[in-house]
Amino acid sequence: MNARVLVLLCLPGLAHAQGFAGLGGEAGGFALPDPSVAPAFPDDHGAHPDYRIEWWYVTANLTGPDGTPYGLQWTLFRSALAPREATGFASPQNWLGHAAVTTPESHLFTQRLARGGIGQAGVEAAPFAAWIDDWRMAGPDFDNLDLAASGPDFAYDLSMSATGPLVLHGEAGYSVKSGKGQASYYYSQPFFAVEGVLRLPDGAVEVSGHAWFDHEWSSQPLSDRQTGWDWFSLSFEGGAKLMGFQLRENDAAGYSYASWIAPDGTLTPYVGDFEAEPLEMASLDGVEVPVRWAVRLPQREVAVDVTALNPAAWNALSPPYWEGPVTITGSHEGRGYLEMTGYE
Amino acid sequence: MTRAVLLALLSHWHRAPLQLFTLIAGLALATGLWSGVQAINAEARASYDVAAATLGEGRYARIEAAAGGEIALADYVTLRRAGWQVSPVVQGRLGGVRLVGIEPLTAPGGIGPATENADIAAFLTGAGQVFGRAEALEALPGIDAEKVVAPDTAPGTVVTDVSVALRLLDRVGFDALIVAPEQPLGRPALEEIAPDLALRPPQAGSEVGRLTDSFHLNLTAFGLLCFAVGIFIVHGAVGLAFEQRRPVLRTMRALGVPLRRLVALMMAELLGFALIAGTLGVGLGWLLAAQLLPDVAATLRGLYGAEVTGGLRLRPVWWLSGLGIAVLGTGFAAGAALWRLARMPLLAAGGRRAWAMADARSARWQGGAALVLIGVAVGLALWGEGLVAGFGLLGAGLVGAALALPVVLGAGLAIAARLARGPLAQWFWADTRQQLPGLSLALMALLLAMAANIGVSTMVSSFRQTFTGFLDQRLAPELYIETADDDQARAIEAFLEPRVRAVLPLASVETEVAGLPVELNLARPDPTYPQNWRFLQAVDRPWERHAAGEGVLVNEQLARRAGLGLGDPVRLGPDTVLPVLGIHGDYGNPVGQVIVTEALFAELHPEVVPRRFGLRLDPDEVPAIRAALVAEGLPEGAITDQAAVKRFSMQVFERTFAVTAALNVLTLAVAGFAILMSLLTLAALRLPQLAPVWALGLTRRRLAGLEMVRAVLLAALTALMALPLGLALAWVLLSVVNVAAFGWRLPMFLFPWDYARLGLFALVAAGLAALWPAIRLARTPPAALLGVFANER
Lengths: 344, 793
Description:
The complex is a heterodimer of chains A (about 350) and B (about 800).
Chain A: H1 2-10, H2 19-22, E1 53-63, E2 69-80, E3 93-102, E4 107-115, E5 121-124, E6 129-132, E7 135-141, E8 144-150, E9 155-162, E10 167-168, E11 174-176, E12 183-200, E13 203-218, E14 226-236, E15 241-249, E16 255-261, E17 267-271, E18 275-284, E19 287-297, E20 302-308, E21 314-315, E22 321-330, E23 334-340
Antiparallel strand pairs in A: 1-2, 1-13, 2-3, 3-4, 5-6, 6-7, 7-8, 8-9, 9-12, 10-12, 11-12, 12-13, 14-15, 14-23, 15-16, 16-17, 18-19, 19-20, 20-22, 21-22, 22-23
Chain B: H1 2-15, H2 17-53, E1 61-65, H3 73-81, E2 86-94, E3 97-102, H4 120-124, E4 129-132, H5 134-139, E5 146-149, E6 157-161, H6 162-169, E7 176-179, H7 190-193, E8 197-200, H8 205-244, H9 246-254, H10 259-304, H11 316-343, H12 360-383, H13 387-419, H14 423-474, E9 479-482, H15 486-496, E10 502-506, E11 508-513, E12 516-523, H16 528-532, E13 535-538, H17 542-547, E14 552-555, H18 556-562, E15 569-573, E16 576-584, E17 592-597, H19 598-604, E18 612-616, H20 622-631, E19 639-640, H21 642-695, H22 700-742, H23 752-778, H24 782-790
Parallel strand pairs in B: 3-6, 4-5, 12-17, 14-16
Antiparallel strand pairs in B: 1-7, 1-8, 2-3, 2-7, 4-6, 9-18, 9-19, 10-18, 11-12, 13-16, 14-17, 15-16
Helix pairs in contact in B: 1-2, 1-10, 2-8, 2-10, 2-11, 2-21, 8-11, 8-14, 8-21, 8-22, 10-11, 10-21, 12-13, 13-14, 13-22, 14-21, 14-22, 14-23, 21-23, 21-24, 22-23
């Protein structure tokens, strides 16, 4: 039953990644984001069971002592079968964790599933704690968090400390996802400094670098013509950052959005100006996926090549998607993370 | 015109009803055997799978409360939060139905029903859903959960979400936690986080499962052989019918029937026969399987405590494949005849040339083909790899040997004829040679049937011997017990020492040897081991030397993967290198195994205290010791009476063996039938050859007697050839196909008495087949014999 369970569970709500697929259902009884109500912290770090889907997403660009670049993913998804919470197995909330480590040579990934209501997985706002099984992201406050996950062939244990403020995407956290107005709440903490240990098949590696945290929740469908999304989080040398995504449509130009984040955390939204164009494809699991992109944001004179550190960063879960570290060259230099869904 | 042509074609069968009967019966029997074997195979396998799948019984390790009783939800969450990949299970009875609750998000794959239309939201929320077979769902008392029919659930069992099961059974805790095979790095030991829980390793049942897989594969190969035997019969009947109809065909073509239409009509005719015979065959196979299956079902019920429907489900795939193979087989058997018809010159001699009297050229062609096929078989045996090569070797070898049979028999008879003294003997040998082409197809069928029987009975008996030996080896102790912690282990061991004949500690540690994952086991010196363990290769007195610490014992899997032979060093630690003293068969175990002495085990892994023990004691004392152990505080669930498990396992296999024995008799009967049909067909044709001998003074009775002798003689010669062929077949099944499919070789044992008995059966079958034609000959009116001289043919 398991594989199918996953598909079924995931269809109404996978990720950032699956944000796209997750948004693809009717709102039916679930709460909807309201542009007049901005997220409030620390409460909104926690779970929103009235919304259909939600995710807490960490991606990190790390470096080993010998200069080897690494990428890391830690994700907790919540998918609700009904807009309420209850204790015990009666809870309609289900949880899904994805974790991955990407090296230039390999991509290790694994997942966890859990029922809500019994304490096996959940998120508490303050002091912040998000967990599924032994995986956790927790700390005394949201600026100082420990991050850990383990799989059959890898594990990691990191500590993250914020060096800048939270940033709210779209209109103060109200992030529109299509021309028809579908939206989510979406904020990030892109300024985490990270250090810790990766346990890989070849042994333990001390790493340091930076991480990007996203928290997004919603209930609303995307337009049924939207087939997938490409999401970029780019950290440039000099401290500026760019988050941009485009939702691909089968018969029209997709919806795109970008947040320009200045080194001090000031965010400028751009609707429809962000451009990403595939330059090179790789075949993974029989699927053609772009692994090098030309990314432009003319208003900020950004014209860069974004190249996968390891083209094989394919999370062969259900549904499968691509998520991995990238390097940036061109008008700006730096590192970042790329996520691509809907290439099945 | 079509109708007229069809009537003309069909009129042949009206004149030769025996041929029609041979054709239909041969095809029906072949299809029947094939589909019978398939049905038994499929049903038995499905039953094992279903029984094993519900709960993954045996396949996965389980965590249970050490002192018996329930596991609390909090304990489950504690284990999950510590990284243990476990999934809760609760089960109980509701209105006579076994209700199993699983947690679908965490259950390892393959547990519970897998249905295409599963709706996870409906399964997890509200009143929930209950999956089961229709009859099990009906037997459930009124419940609020939605009932969903899922035919792949074990009989008498329904599966639901764990929360629904807890509610329906009015329970709060779980019976067990199933441990997923893959666990994350760095999780703490069970006793650190949940000292009240105990880990139970997977049951030996999973190893048995791998053995049965091998058995079923071999049974499938056997089904295919049965079908080949039948096809030989059909080939003979179709070929004969075509030859006999040559004048009719020539006449029709001369009258203007287009060749294309003629061929099309003959193909349609054959298709009709194939469908009729195929339907009969599928029915036959179904009857056969239905007769043999209830035994298997009864045993499975005993083994798994789960009800397995003894009745057979008529799966569409199954009867369609039966029909399909009948049509394909007919096409294969008739292909050559149709080809010849299509190429027949319009004005070819219309003379009635008995097809059976094949000419020398076709004999040479056949000999050549036989040589090529045997060459291919030898090549595949030497250089082939994998399952396909194994089956290719099987096919090429068998067909090659069958084709070579007439050539070999002909040569043998030629030698006999040269050695013969006296006119009667010379005539007998010469006449036998002359008759050989007509009988060769039937003899080929006999050869294949006998070879298949020898091969399969060798395989089955070797399998049984290996399996029994393996069970004896692994399950020798009368009782197995499992203690919850180190203290209890020491206390129980001390308690038992004076009370039983031997206490054999069991412990296993996962480690690495030569870069491969292996389980390190320990053995305490005891007569149990030398008495029961059989080695594939071993030094002299391996257990004595093992006890003296001179070396280690490894399983076949490790030996194969690491390329270890006797005496080769095995590195177990930085300073511990010991030679291999013996290599043992370890059927079904996916990983390598190294057995060391208790002392060395303690030295290498001082932290591991054996908690499982095998107890050797007088079987009569089992109940008393059991009671004493329970009184000492060991829960019932921690004591296993392995003798019972062993008995059950053996019963399953004994019944399956009985099934193959029955099939053996049937194939021989089919071959005997082929001989009978050939002899009957030949009888009419042979009259001109027999009449002069009769006219020279040999009585009809004497002639009939000689006919009998001839049939038995040919059968005996065929049997002689079948023996090496059958042994080769068994060798391929055990040493090539099995290794390719499962990675280990089944040892081959020889059973001369079985072969002798089989040879005798073959002679009896041939004699019986020759009896009727012989009686008919003895009763032929002299007028008919005289008529040979009176008429122009």
